[in-house]
Write a structure and sequence with these properties.
Blueprint: H1 10-58, H2 67-70, H3 73-78, E1 83-90, E2 94-102, H4 103-110, H5 115-121, H6 123-133, E3 137-140, E4 152-158
């Protein structure tokens, strides 16, 4: 990307991105309709998340991604009280936890963003970030707060 945004808190970056994403979505709606406008936004968010995963992997010791290094991303995701994480479990090939409070969803609601954008702006990033971090990392997330569940369940597996 060329610009180092690591000094800007993640919650602030997400707020700025959400405002811009809403503008893009709103402008695209009359021409593309809601489904196509959301597909375009999803593709852009996925690409950005994969790139962020690659950048995080490049900071791994000896530039060698590992589940141990990947687990450090939780500090960034939780910064400023953005997430409340419970039930954290780690093993040699897995990392699992629950998010019982998501400040990102709260922020999107406070910004009056359409509910259709909530998962796009936050939840959908996670699998693409993992994919960008390493082809060996897989995410299973059977429930999310944005889809109406009481919590988000994250299950990362390191394969191979």
């Amino acid at each position: 990307m060329g610009v180092d945004l690591t000094g800007i808190p993640l919650s602030a970056r997400r707020a700025i991105e959400a405002q811009f994403a809403l503008r893009l979505y709103t402008v695209a709606l009359p021409t593309l309709g809601p489904d196509a406008a959301l597909r375009v936004l999803n593709a852009a968010i996925d690409a950005a998340a994969r790139e962020a995963g690659q950048a995080f992997a490049a900071r791994a010791p000896r530039s060698t991604p590992s589940l141990e290094h990947f687990a450090q991303v939780l500090d960034t995701w939780q910064a400023g009280g953005a997430l409340t994480i419970t039930d954290l479990e780690r093993g040699p090939d897995f990392l699992s936890f629950c998010v019982s409070r998501c400040g990102y969803m709260e922020m999107y609601r406070d910004m009056a963003l359409p509910a259709a954008l909530h998962a796009t702006l936050s939840c959908r990033r996670d699998a693409a970030f993992a994919e960008g971090y390493s082809p060996r990392l897989r995410l299973d997330r059977p429930e999310t707060i944005s889809s109406g569940a009481a919590r988000c369940v994250f299950r990362f597996r390191w394969q191979g």
